[in-house]
Each structure stands twice: as structure tokens, then as C-alpha cells.
Specification:
This protein is mainly α. Among the domains are: about 210 residues, Serine Threonine Protein Phosphatase 5, Tetratricopeptide repeat; about 50 residues, no CATH class. About 40% of the residues lie in helices and about 10% in strands. Strands 1-2 form a two-stranded antiparallel sheet. A two-stranded antiparallel sheet has the order 3-5. A hairpin with a 2-residue loop joins β10 and β11. It is globular, with a radius of gyration of 25 Å. The two termini are about 15 Å apart. The N terminus is likely disordered.
Length: about 600
């Protein structure tokens, strides 16, 4: 385990992190030492601001079955090995945890009111819970460190792993403290400096409660389906209760974003103003609309990543979207078999021109999630919440991005959360927790806890998400029974299509215990058409990647259609359910603990 202590604070509370491997260094780095820093509200705010700036970016998560990159992901394919060290997954979270601990310990020194002091301590509690939950989702049991260290001989520096239940209960405790002392959304909006880029996305009571919704759902279902313990209902109760506080208590005021007309789903991720967008519950502020930005590289859906084609989404994700009658392809009268498609746009319900319906309409979220050829939103005049979202803004022409090369694998390109015109010229806030997630999480928690869900509860959750985009076919118990739908599967389907691209899918397939079924499968990409390809594939690619008329390639069946592009074949993918549901702990951390930290099963 990486041992970090805080030696001093430098200007603006950028606390110096010193490794215990280098022994304790208490020499001040500037005149602003730890002894004379913790005095004012400004000091506290500056210290906590560091937690926001160090919040990891939502990266291009290719660990699950929804997305792939140019090269196979080692976690997705089951090819990873036990690392010696792991900065982003283990060491960096502990650095941020120790920073939060330092704030919790030192903030009481400041000459401020109890309310001011506890508000900033509450922020540190929120971030500590955030980091510990993410560690638990990867590793299970992890060392629970709730204080700083002043002595390199402290025995807790070599502590072993704490049971996940204890860690999760600490997360709940931290978040309940945060929910008591943080401002409400209404108070944040009413603050005179609510437009300040850090203030705009400061955590609120609803951020803490929203994280409790997420943690309770994850832990409840993880314990239920992995049979980790018999108390899984208690965690689902935490999730349900946290949501009902969000829904019922005054001051939170969250709702689905409904601006921008039929593009409301797109606007939910781009409208940055607190007053105008009640959907965002926790995010990372990255400047104002119209502000200059030096690089697009830090933007979640930057042009150089998802947009230019270095990542693509699988056909399996597109197939998740229902048809206009509220039914999946296997049951819908609108279903168009892939073998009968005539264009890349066929699966979206349109002809090649991008605007003429082909008689096979889908859930409107499909065309607000992925780009299609000649997409009507790919025009200069299309602006959503101040952002020009089209590709033309970047390319200066109608760029056909469904190309195939070693740099850009063919796949469905994410439109949701994309702002083409502002690349290198603007930032958009990154959304980490939003009301749409809360609705679908509540529906799932209710169903998994009770084994049933009422039509009224479906209307308040799943059907509200559908109605926001004009998909007005209600999911009800009678509808499910009439059409032979499994309610659990339909709730999971709604979660998948609503949250696609938001880095939730991997944790979902882990907690549902379906990774062993979905990850070893081949990754089927687009149906390929020569007349629409920006760069036609070679004869070798055709022989190696495209299915034959019977849906096979090299004698193996992949998908019921000719010319389906196989991005990753199943024989190169594996998942060991006795090992791969948890990350391997870096060997260096085990050694530093004098082997008090034990490796996860079957990673030795």
C-alpha cells in the first residue's frame, strides 16, 4: 500500500505529498507552512478545491462489452496480469484519501464558525467516500485509513485489508455527515458567486445522497448476485431511502432537463447553468461556455478520442434500444433484420440520406446517442445549450466518419456529450451524477429489493425517462406480461440505453454477475457497406473481418447477417469468474505491507 503523509501546505493549499519510503520530511516548502495555513475560510476553501481539481477525468472506459478502442482492452479481453504498481487504480486514490483526511483533521484549527468549518469538512468526507467506493468496486476489501500519519513507524502504515462491509459503512457515515452540512442545490443557486467555475459544481447535499443511491444499489446487487452476504436488502434500503430523501426533502429540486426541445437528452450534458439544468447533481467544472481552452485532450468526449473514431460502440449496444412499439427486435413488428439493411442508417430507422424514415422507428434516444450518416444535427446552425455539436464544425465538410483503418476501428460513434464546434475553443462540464441515473437506480433498487415494481413507480422512473425524449410507450406490468417481457431484463435495458457512454457499464456487468457471459463473446461492430465507407476496406480485411451470408466467419457463427464487421473475435476474449470479478492488488503494495495485505483469489 502506498503510504502518503502530508508534510506541509504550499500556496493555495496545494499540499505536498511525501512518500514514507523517503522518510518523513517536515521541512516547509514555502513560507506558507502547515502550522500557519489552517486559519481562515479562504484557507479551507483552497484546501478543499484541490480535491476538485484532482478529481479523475471520466476516461474512455473500454473495460466492458459496450465499447472498444483501436487495441483490445486487457481487462475486457481477460488478458491483464498482476501489476507491480498501479497509480491510477490504487496509489492515486489513496493519495486523495489522505488529503481528505488531512482536511478533516486540520480544518478545526481555523477561526471560523461551526457551519463554515463543517461545510468544508463535509466536502472532504464526500470525496473520501467517493474514493473508497471506487476502490471497493475494483478490489473488494481494501485498507481503511481514516487519519494522517506523523511517524513512519506507525503500525497502521502496514495494515491489512478491511472487510468491504466496514469500508462501505464508513462511506455511508461520511455521506450522511456530508448531507447534513453541505448546502442544498437551492442554497448553492442563491449564493452570490454561484457562477464561479468552482462554486458552480461544488458538492451539495444532493451530491452526497446521490452517491448513497449509487453505492447502496451497487452493494445490494453485488451481494445478492455474488452471494457475498445475506444482508443485501439492507444496502438496497439505503439506496431507496437516499433517493426518497432527494425526491421529498425541500431544497434539492432535481428533475430531468427538458430544455432544447427534442434535443433535451443532448442538452442535459451541455447546459452548465445551475438555474437552468436541474439534472446535474455532481460534476466537474471546466470553465464557462465560450471560454478559450488550450487542448481538447482533457474533455471526456473530445474530438481526438471518441469523435474521430478511436473508440466505437458495439452492435450489441445498438440492439439494446427498443423499437417504437416498446418491444425489442425479437418481438417487435417494426424489427428490421440486419440482413435486410441497405445502409448504415437502416438500424437507426432512416435511409442513407439521414432524414427519410425507413418504416422501422426506434427509441428516440438511439439517434440522440449515436451519429448517423447525413445526421441533421451535423449542421452549423445546430447549437445545443450554447455548444455547436456537429462534425462539420471541425471538418469543414460532411465528414464520413464510419471509416476503417488501424487508427480508427469501425463502430458506432457517440453523439451524446459531444460538442464538435467547441473542440480546442471551449470546455463543457463533466457530469458524474445526474437525476436520470437516480430514476433508473430507484427503479432497479425497488425491483431487486421487493421482487416487484408498481406501475406508478415505473411511471415515475423509467416512463419519465422515455417521455423526456418523446418515447411515449409505457412500460407497465401488464405490458410486460402481455408481450412476455422479463421485468428485470427491461429495467437493466433501460439503464443501459439511458447511461450508455457514461462509464457505468463495467460496474453494472460486474455487480449483476453477467461479465462471465458477455465479455467472452466476440465484439460485433457495424454492418459494412462499400458505398458508404469513407475508406473502403481491403480484400484482406474483408476476408478477416466480414461475416459471410450465413453470419459466419472462418466457420464460426457471429451474427445473423452478411458483412457484419467483427472487431474482436471470441477466441481472443476470456473471463475467469473465479478471478476476474476483482482486480489484482499490485505486488508492490503487498510487499510494503509486510504481506499483511493479501492478494485477491487466483491472482497469485
Amino acid at each position: 500500500m502506498k503510504k502518503i503523509i502530508y508534510a506541509s501546505a504550499i500556496a493555495l493549499a496545494t499540499l505536498i505529498l511525501i512518500s514514507c519510503d523517503a522518510l518523513l520530511d517536515v521541512k516547509p516548502q514555502t513560507d506558507m507552512t502547515d502550522a500557519n495555513f489552517w486559519n481562515t475560510e479562504q484557507d479551507l476553501r483552497a484546501a478543499v478545491s484541490r480535491l476538485y481539481t484532482q478529481l479523475p477525468a471520466l476516461g474512455h472506459d473500454a473495460r466492458a462489452d459496450d465499447k472498444f478502442g483501436r487495441d483490445p482492452d486487457p481487462i475486457s479481453t481477460g488478458q491483464r496480469v498482476t501489476p507491480v504498481t498501479s497509480g491510477g487504480d490504487w496509489t492515486d486514490p489513496y493519495r486523495r484519501i489522505f488529503q481528505a483526511n488531512n482536511i478533516i483533521e486540520k480544518a478545526p484549527r481555523a477561526s471560523v464558525s461551526e457551519r463554515v468549518m463543517n461545510r468544508h469538512i463535509a466536502e472532504a468526507h464526500f470525496f473520501r467516500a467517493w474514493e473508497y467506493f471506487n476502490l471497493v468496486t475494483r478490489y473488494g476489501d481494501v485498507p481503511l485509513v481514516l487519519r494522517t500519519f506523523t511517524n513512519t513507524q506507525d503500525p497502521d502504515l502496514k495494515m491489512g485489508r478491511t472487510p468491504r462491509e466496514v469500508v462501505i459503512q464508513q462511506c455511508y457515515e461520511d455521506l450522511l455527515f456530508a448531507a447534513r452540512w453541505l448546502p442544498t442545490r437551492a442554497e448553492l443557486i442563491a449564493s452570490p458567486d454561484n457562477s464561479h467555475e468552482f462554486h458552480r459544481r461544488r458538492v451539495t447535499q444532493s451530491s452526497a445522497l446521490g452517491l448513497m443511491v449509487r453505492i447502496g444499489l451497487h452493494e445490494g446487487t453485488m451481494r445478492k448476485f455474488h452471494q457475498l452476504s445475506s444482508d443485501w436488502q439492507a444496502h438496497l434500503d439505503v439506496s431507496i431511502a437516499a433517493f426518497e430523501r432527494l425526491r421529498d426533502e425541500p431544497g434539492h429540486g432535481h428533475d430531468l432537463y427538458r430544455g432544447e426541445g427534442h434535443r433535451a437528452f443532448l442538452g442535459a450534458f451541455l447546459e452548465e447553468r445551475n438555474v437552468e439544468n436541474p439534472e446535474i447533481m455532481f460534476g466537474k467544472a471546466l470553465g464557462f461556455n465560450g471560454a478559450a481552452a488550450g487542448s481538447a485532450g482533457n474533455i471526456f468526449t473530445d474530438f481526438s478520442g471518441l469523435a474521430s473514431g478511436r473508440f466505437g460502440f458495439t452492435r450489441a449496444m445498438v440492439d439494446m434500444f427498443l423499437y417504437a412499439d416498446g418491444l425489442p427486435g425479437s418481438k417487435s413488428a417494426y424489427y428490421l433484420p440486419a440482413a435486410d439493411e441497405t445502409s448504415f442508417n437502416s438500424v437507426f430507422g432512416y435511409e442513407t440520406n439521414g432524414v427519410t424514415p425507413n418504416g422501422h422507428p426506434r427509441d428516440p434516444r438511439l439517434t440522440q446517442t449515436f451519429w448517423r450518416i447525413n445526421d441533421p444535427d451535423d449542421r452549423t446552425e445546430v447549437v445545443v445549450a450554447g455548444f455547436g455539436i456537429g462534425w462539420q464544425h471541425r471538418q469543414g465538410e460532411n465528414y464520413n466518419f464510419f471509416i476503417t483503418s488501424t487508427r480508427e476501428p469501425p463502430g458506432y460513434r457517440l453523439k451524446k456529450m459531444f460538442w464538435g464546434a467547441q473542440v480546442n475553443r471551449d470546455w463543457a462540464d463533466k457530469t458524474y451524477i445526474r437525476w436520470g441515473e437516480m430514476l433508473i437506480a430507484y427503479a432497479e433498487a425497488l425491483y431487486e429489493r421487493n421482487g416487484a415494481i408498481t406501475d406508478a413507480q415505473l411511471d415515475a422512473t423509467i416512463n419519465a425517462l422515455r417521455a423526456r425524449v418523446g418515447f411515449n410507450v409505457r412500460l407497465t406490468n401488464a405490458f410486460a406480461a402481455t408481450h412476455g417481457l422479463n421485468m428485470q431484463e427491461e429495467i437493466r435495458r433501460e439503464r443501459t440505453v439511458e447511461l450508455i457512454g457514461e462509464s457505468q457499464r463495467y460496474n453494472d456487468i460486474i455487480r449483476w454477475k453477467i461479465a462471465e457471459y458477455v465479455l467472452p463473446r466476440p465484439f460485433v461492430s457495424i454492418r459494412y457497406f462499400d458505398h458508404e465507407a469513407g475508406i473502403p476496406i481491403t480484400a484482406q480485411q474483408r476476408a478477416e473481418r466480414l461475416t459471410l451470408a450465413d453470419g459466419t466467419l472462418d466457420g464460426v457463427f457471429f451474427y445473423p447477417s452478411v458483412d457484419m464487421y467483427i472487431q474482436e473475435k471470441g477466441d481472443a476474449r476470456r473471463f475467469n469468474p473465479a478471478r476476474d470479478y476483482f482486480y489484482p492488488i499490485p505486488t508492490n503494495e503487498i510487499a510494503k505491507s509486510d504481506n499483511n495485505i493479501k492478494q485477491n483469489p487466483n491472482w497469485d
